[in-house]
Amino acid sequence: MKKKRKLGAASLIVVASGLTVIETAIHYELVSGPVWQIIAGGFEAGTVGGLADWFAVSALFREVPIPIIRRHTNIIVKNRARLTEGAVDLVTNQWLAPDVVKAKLQNISFSESIVRVLQEPANQEPAIDLIRDILFRMAEGLDKPQVTEFLERVLKDQIGNLDIAGPLGRWMEDAVREGRHNRLWDVVLDAAEKTINNEETRGQVESRVDQIIHKFKEKDFFKRAFLGVAEFLGILRKDVITGKIIQKMNELTRMARDNPYHPLRARIDSMILDFAHGLSSGDPSLTTVIDGLRSKFAHHADTRGIIQGILSRFRSKLSEQLESKDSAFMLVLANYLREILTDLQNDRLAQKNLDTWVRDTMTNLAEKYHHAIGDMIRTSLHPEKLDDRGLVDQIEEKVGNDLQYIRLNGAVVGGLVGILLGIIRFLVMGR
After folding, report:
1. What secondary structure letter does DSSP report for 1?
2. What's the pLDDT at 328?
3. Nearest Cα residue to 57 out of 418, 395, 383, 381
4. What is d(CA 100, CA 195) in angstroms, rounded to the nearest whole number?
5. How far is it, in rounded angstroms, from Cα 74 to Cα 254?
6. Could you give the C-alpha distances from 244 to 146, 204, 212, 239, 247, in angstroms and in order?
7. How do residues 249-276 score in pLDDT, each as one tens digit?
């Protein structure tokens, strides 16, 4: 920039110096003749042109201390308000007008750009990290009281109007007929076997045997005497009877577990089917039970606490999965992103819909916040943000080079015009 400023000043110095030297030489008759007069005229016109362009350029950026006309200098600073509004109008109403933005968006395929960018492995990781950060923020507020209250209200509203009996009955019927409940049988029977063989169950069975013997003794004298003698002789032992009962219960449990068609299982399955059929067919005696359970849950005093506990555990598990890039959830998320990209790449309709949505969204934003563009320009050019010196320096930095060439061209063109006029004067007037 400084070199260009020197170029403009040098051009003025050259023509002014040339004018001084030639006029001095002519005045002292060191040179003479029409050629030197024409050259002097060229330097004179070049000096006038250079001075005029110097004044014009200088008057744009700073005040020129020349009486009377100084009021018409420092044009940029004095007219910065109009320049600002002019820039606002040019950008907002012409270059970035909503219609212009909308027309430009019509020629852009956002879906192709998204697919092309995200197909690069280096770009997929930042995209996944962005999704993970969003999920992290969502997880942090997942168990807040406001979320719990909202879910409680929605759940109660939905449960209050939800037909549970019919779908539940049909599901139970299908599960029993297709044998999907067999795994549940295994779990129940395994749990039953463990319960049968623990000490608490043995104690309860033995206590029950003792009660039965005691009641049997109370019936008459002979039964009491017979049982008393049997106990005395060790023939009647409660622990042995208890062991036999538990042994039979174990045998029944193992047989039912090993045989899907065991009479016990068949009998219970039949009862379940009858119950399920009653629910699906709308048996009032059964649907009333389900409706009662639904109502009790909907109006349960601790429903909020239950939801809060579920959300807290879910938030904890989700956060734990999000912390590691190699967790099962993150691997599923990465695979899902790749599947979406593949589907989007091959689905022209999906691409069209995505492009339409992006265009409509960006167009609506451009129309809704169109004023923000002008506000940003005004803020950037406000004196508190950019003082007069800074404004002048910025403009001069962008266009100063061309303005210095204007000064050079003024001197050169002025000199050529002066020479041409000198030649014409010589040819016409002979001097």
Report:
1. -
2. 85
3. 395
4. 78
5. 104
6. 58, 14, 15, 9, 5
7. 888 888 877 787 778 778 888 887 887 7
Q: Work out the percent of the chain whose per-residue pLDDT is above 70.
A: 85
Structure tokens given for 80: 């910065």
Give the tens place of pLDDT for each residue, 214-224. 777 676 665 66
Range of lowest pLDDT (154-163, 283-292, 366-375, 396-405): 154-163
Asked if 159 contacts 151 with a C-beta cutoff of 8 angstroms, the reply is no
Residue 122 neighbours by CB distance under 10 Å: 7
Q: Give the C-alpha separation, 246 to 201, whole Å.
A: 9
- Please name which of 309, 337, 343 lies closest in space to residue 135, comparing C-alpha atoms: 337
Terminal alpha carbon distance of the chain: 44
Q: 């939801």: which residue's tokens? A: 307
Q: Alpha-carbon distance 389 to 254, whole Å?
A: 96
Q: What pTM was computed for the model?
A: 0.43
What average pLDDT does the chain have?
Answer: 78
Dihedral of CA 303/305/311/313: which sign?
Answer: negative
Count of alpha carbons within 13 angstroms of residue 401, beta-carbon side? 4
The per-residue DSSP string of 40-96 comes to HHHHHHHHHHHHHHHHHHHHHHS----TTGGGG--HHHHTHHHHHHHHHHHIIIIIT
Cβ within 8 Å of residue 227, ≥6 positions away: 213, 216, 217, 236
Q: Tokens 């016109």: give the residue.
A: 45
- Give the residue carrying structure tokens 């606490």: 305
Q: Lowest mean pLDDT: which of 190-199, 203-212, 281-290?
A: 281-290
Per-residue pLDDT of 280-318, as tens digits, reads 787 777 677 776 766 666 666 566 677 778 888 888 888
173-199: average pLDDT: 77
Distance CA 265, CA 172 (A): 15
8 A C-beta contact, residue 41 and residue 418: yes
Query: Left if phi > 0, otherwise alpha if psi is -120 to 50, otherwise beta: which for 282?
Result: left
Best CA proximity match to 209, nearest among 170, 249, 245: 245
Which residue is associated with the tokens 């039949």? 270
Write down the H helix ranges in 178-237: 182-196, 199-217, 221-233
Q: Do residues 312 and 143 touch, judged by C-beta distance below 8 A?
A: yes
pLDDT class of 226 with cuts at 50, 70, 90: low
